[in-house]
Hints:
Blueprint: H1 5-33, E1 52-62, E2 69-79, H2 84-94, E3 99-103, E4 106-111, E5 121-127, E6 130-137
Antiparallel strand pairs: 1-2, 2-6, 3-4, 4-5, 5-6
Amino acid sequence: MVTDSGARRRLGALILAGMSAIALVGCSVVERRSELEGSVYARQVPAYPSAKFEDSMGGTTSEGIGGRAVSKSQSWFYSVSDPVDTVAAFYTQNLPTATKEVDGDSVVFRLKPKDAGPDESVVVTVEPGRLQITEILTPKGAAY
Length: 144
């Protein structure tokens, strides 16, 4: 039992600091990924630590005008300040089952997500100053 009042204050401050750190870490993960609300597979891709969300967009591909939908895609765009090699190394380590293709200044990772349909995928594209995460869904997939 701690009987010294100074030791008690220090212990209380230490506990408060530890709880604050845990709360901050928990909030930052939720805030950084909140832009993926409504995503199906993109949450399976880890966020690059210093990436800053900029925008998102999506669309549907059809069999001609007025034809049936054959796929949907959604992309999330981030700015990154680290070099392409550094960001690509992060994804090489964190997406071990993804294929990797170098295309000029870009590195593209293609991942077959858990529970994805036959033609569904997530594509991570790393370019100078930019990161893009795209999920592609099909009507045959479970989550279309």
